[in-house]
Amino acid sequence: MAERSDTEEVKLLGMWASPFSRRIEVALTLKGVPYEFSEQDITNKSSLLLQLNPVYKMIPVLVHNGKPISESLVILEYIDDTWRNNPILPQDPCERATARFLAKLIDQQICVAAMKVVGKVGEERDAAVEATRDLLMFLEKELVGKDFFGGRSLGFVDIVATLVAFWLMRTEDLLGVKVVPVELFPEIHRWVKNLLGNDVIKKCIPPKDEHLAYIRARMDKLNLKSA
Amino acid sequence: MADEVILLDFWPSMFGMRTRIALEEKNVKFDYREQDLWNKSPILLEMNPVHNKIPVLIHNGKPVCESLIQVEYIDEVWPGVNPLLPSDPYQRAQAKFWGDYIDKKVYASARLTWGAKGEEQEAGKKEFIEILKTLESKLGDKIYFGGETFGYVDIALIGFYSWFEAYEKFGNFSIEAECPKLIAWGKRCAERESVAKSLPDSEKIIKFVPELKKRFGIE
Asked: Entry's InterPro entries (chain B) (predicted)?
C-alpha cells in the first residue's frame, strides 16, 4: 500500500438515505479509508455543495485533499485507483467491462424502471413492474454459481446493486407490490442474504426502520400510494 | 496468436465512431461489420442481448457493449501505444466525469435540433448550445480536453462533430458563431489519422438525416 501523508483529508458530502451516497461509504469502509461525512440537506443545498459540484449540484461528492469528484460511479473507480488494497473492480479487462456495463444497467435502466413502479398506478404500474423484472433477470443470471457479483467477495457491481437490495426491495414492503419475488429471483434473494452477512454492508446501509419511515414520508409527500 | 477483433457498427453512429477511433489509435486491425438497425442481425442480438444496440466490440469471441466502456477496454487491453486515459487517478476521474456528461447530455438535445419543430426545436437548440458552451469552457485554451494529448474526452465528443453541419442546416443556426473554440478543436481532431479514418463526411450525414426522419416517422 502506498505511503499516505498525515495531512490526507477525505470528506464525503452525502445524504443518509441516498443509495448513491451509501455506496461510496461502502467502498471507503471496505478499503479502511477514514473519512469525514458531511450530511447535506438536498432540499436546501449548501453553498459548499454548489461550489464543489457546479455541473449537477448533487450528492455524493468526494473531496480528497481539497479536490472534488462527482458522480458515484466515477467516485467508486477513483477510490479503487487511489487505495489499491481490497480491489473493487476485477483485474481482467473483459470482466471489468462487464462490471461497468452492469453498473450502468442498474443506475440508468433498473433504477429508472423501478422509479416508474413507484410513480405510476394501475396498468402503467404493471407495465413498469414487468420492465423492471426483465432488466433484473440479467442480474439474476449473473449471480448463478456465485456468492456475490464479485465472486467470492464483494465487488463493484455488489456495491452498486445495493440500490436493488436495500432501496428497490425495501420499497416493495411499502408498495404492496412484490417487484422481486423469490420465486422468480431466487439468486437475487440468496445474494441479499449474503450481503446481510457482510460486516461492511451491515455498517453502511441505512437502518431499516428509519429508512422505511423516510421512504413512506417521501411517498406521502409526493402523494404516491403506499400500502 | 492473432487477436480477432470485430466491430458491429452503423456508419453514422457517433457512438460507433468512438470505438473506431480508439482501435485506430492503437493500430488494432479489426473487422468492421455494418449493421442494419431496422433488421437486426442474429449476431447483434446474440452479442448485445440487453440492448440490441451498436456498437458492439467482439474480442476473441467475447462481446463488450457501450461505446465508452469499449474505449476504456481498448485502452486496458492495448496499453503500449497512445494511452487514451491519463494515468493519474484524479485526472482519470475528471476524464470519466466529462465522458459521462457528454453521454448524458449531448445526444438528447442535439437530436431536437433536427428531429423537432417549432418551440421544441428552439428549446433543443438553446439547450444544445448551452451544453456545448459548458464543454468549450472545460476545453479552455487547451489543444485537447486532456491537455497536450488526444484522449478519452475528445473521443467521446468528436463523433458529434461530424453531425454539426447537419444540426446547423436542419436547425438553422451556427455552432461556430456560438462556440468558435470548439469548432477549432473539432478541426484539429479531424486532422488526426484515427479520426479522419473514422468520421463520415458531413455531407453524407446531411443526406442521411431526411432518411432517418422518415424511419422515425418524423415529418
From this structure: Glutathione-S-Trfase_C-like, Glutathione-S-Trfase_C_sf, Glutathione_S-Trfase, Glutathione_S-Trfase_N, GST_C_Tau, Omega/Tau-like, Thioredoxin-like_sf
For the entire predicted model, the pTM comes to 0.96
Give the per-residue pLDDT at B1.
58
**Residues A208 and A25: beta-carbon distance below 8 Å:** no
Determine contact: B113 vs chain A, CB below 8 A.
no
- Over residues A41-92, the pLDDT tens digits come to 999 999 999 999 999 999 999 999 999 999 999 999 999 999 999 999 999 9
Could A97 and B70 be called an inter-chain contact, meaning their C-beta atoms sit closer than 8 Å? Answer: yes
> ipTM score here?
0.96
Q: Which of B59, B69, B89 sits opposite A101 (nearest CB)?
A: B69
Give the strand pairing for A67-70 and B56-59.
unpaired
Domain boundaries, chain A: 10-82, 93-226
Three-class HEC string of A39-58: ECCCCCCCHHHHHHCCCCCC
Given an 8 Å threshold on Cβ–Cβ distance, is B73 in contact with A74? no
Q: What is the pLDDT of residues B47-76, one digit of tens each?
A: 999 999 999 999 999 999 999 999 999 999
Q: Which of A78, A100, A138 lies at the smallest CB-CB distance from B50? A: A138
Residue B4 contacts A where some CB pair is shorter than 8 Å: no
Could you tell me which residues come within 8 angstroms of residue B176 by beta carbon, excluding any fewer than 6 positions away? Answer: B183
DSSP A109: I
Pick from A55, A74, A94: CB nearest B96: A74
A101 and B65: CB-CB below 8 Å? Answer: yes
Check for a shared fold between A10-82 and A93-226.
Answer: no
Cis peptide before B55 (omega within 30 of 0): yes
Q: Does domain A93-226 have CATH number 1.20.1050.10?
A: yes
Which residues pair with residue A182 across a beta bridge? none
Sheet holding A10-14, edge to edge: A36-39, A10-14, A61-64, A67-70
CA–CA distance from A5 to each of A11, A64, A78 (Å)? 15, 12, 18
**How far, in Å, CA of B96 to CA of A138, rounded?**
25
Closest CA relative to residue A71, chosen from A20, A16, A15, A11: A20
The residue whose grid cell reads 478499503 is A31
**Digit-coded pLDDT (tens) for A37-47:** 999 999 999 99
Contact present, A162 and A205 (Cβ < 8 Å): yes
Does A54 sit behind a cis peptide bond, omega within 30 degrees of 0 on the bond before it? no
The single-letter code of the amino acid at B113 is: T
Asked if B50 and B65 touch (Cβ cutoff 8 Å), the reply is yes
CB B40 within 8 A of CB B186: no
* Distance (Å, whole) CA A10 – CA A82: 12
